[in-house]
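Known limitations

Structure tokens in this collection are predictions and should be treated as such. Users comparing against experimental data should check residue numbering before alignment. To illustrate the layout, the record for Signal transduction protein with Nacht domain protein is reproduced below. The input appears on top and the generated tokens appear beneath it.
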Amino acid sequence: MMRHKIRQISTEKAIKIIALHLERIGLNKEDANRFLNDLQASSGLFLEQEAKNWGFAHLTFQEYLASSHILDNNINIAWEKSVNNSWWYETFQLYTAQSNDATPLIQACLENGSVSALRLAVDCLKEARALDKSIHLAVQDRIAAELESSEPQCRQLAGEMKLDQRLKSLPHIDEQRDIDRKYITCAEYQLFLDDARAQGKYHQPEHWTEYTFPKGSAKTPICGIRAEDAEAFCAWLTQRQGGEISYRLPQETEAKNYPAIEREELATWHKVNDVYDLCWFRGTNEQRVYSILKKFYEAPLSQGYALANANNLIFDLEHAERALNSALDHALARRTRALSRAFDYAFSRDFTHHLAPALARNGLDILAVALNAFDARAYVDSYAHSRARATLDNAFTRSREILARASLDRDSLSYVALESTRQALSALNNHDARASELIAHAREALDRARHDIGHDLIHDLARAFARILARADITCPVCNAIEQGDLQTAQQLAQTERLDSNPVIQRLSVLLSKLLNCATATTVLELRQAWRNFVAQITETILIGYNELEKRNKRQLRSKSNYSEEKNLILRLQWWLRIIIAREEGKLDAWEGIRIVRDFK
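Generated tokens:
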């Protein structure tokens, strides 16, 4: 049955096979028929699943008996031809668990080298009863070499093996607890990231530019993660291992009494009375980080502002409204909806959802390049016409796929431009005389769409800033230029007004200049970085506003019950952004890592 890859055989074939063996002990065909029915009634191992069709109650019985048959009869298997065949996967695992030497099977897996064969090698390694030590090491080395693989399945397999090896060797604290004295690596954390992203959840460090770890860092500790991400990893690991034993972050005493034996410059997340904090190998390491941070930015920095309690470092919009009311002006506070979108763009870890404008613009740019390159001379030269049409067709397909990922409204200008291009392509394919006219129309539609993407938010924020200045009888040429859609002139004016004698206009020109960078970003990563810089500039402006308000009416401000809380909130956000931006630019290393505790309670 295994050789023919079937799970059922007819009654006639079953009796014929059984009769051959019963004849050796003096029984006949009728006895074979009775034996088949008795087997079903007494054991339930082999059943008549359909009329005149028999099979094992579960495929595992068939696979186990097949593996035993191979061993008992010393059957030679062409391993190299079979290890990549999923039908034999469980059978070979069961064979390995019973065999006195599984070396030939696992050696064939290594020689085959496919993902399925390597996965079989890893699983057989776990089950192997006897195996040459050299082959055991060869499997580990071969799989470890795949940690940096560009093939997701190979990388996943290598990460799983590394994580399994870690869990087998956790040092004991006592009968109830084990603690890891090494940090979780990027390759292991990537397993969690991949599973989470499949569910629409994102837990990668803010400074990463991709959903996967940077090249060359598979074996290095995962750093720069939020505390709640570290705890989510522990919850995922508990579920992955079956849920009977729990994994968690260490408590403060556990982290200090059993410090990490690697990377002294890192800190591990732990909990103190259900509040997240960082535990350092030495206090001097923490002080070293503080001294480095103070070189990046001149704002006050005290313990806890930027190094721990990550939940409080993420901007709380409800509190932010009150801070904006106090520091920037009521007019801007009424525009917090626009600001909340800016914060979404700045903090998003989903590169395709909140950052859809840059993604859509990228798709339209691809189409625009192809359309603009479609020279009229292509109509004369049939070969050139064919090539140009194929290029445009490919660009249209790519652009349509990208716009679909960007999840824009179907009535947006982007989809209007896409439809115009489709009509132009149809005319070209049908040799329609209107093709040239339709291409020109599609170009115009693309230009309008590319200008429109993401600019609604830019306009909203510019209007809010203009209203603030209007209340102080100050006009804003930059805001006016933005309102008219002339972003190039707006950027030039912003650069000029940085030299204005009025410090308010100076600060606003810097703010608007960074806002305009958001409008001109051409990639997802450029847009995210531009929004982060813009939001950081907002928080800096707010802090300046607090300082100036304190000078004018310090007593009144201090009498407000939530004044200190709001200012600290803005200061925390400012530092959090400065840290993320510095890490993104490669100017600052991350230090927040994960160590785990296995709890048998």
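For this record: Residues 356-452 form one domain. The first helix runs from residue 11 to 22. Please report discrepancies through the issue tracker.
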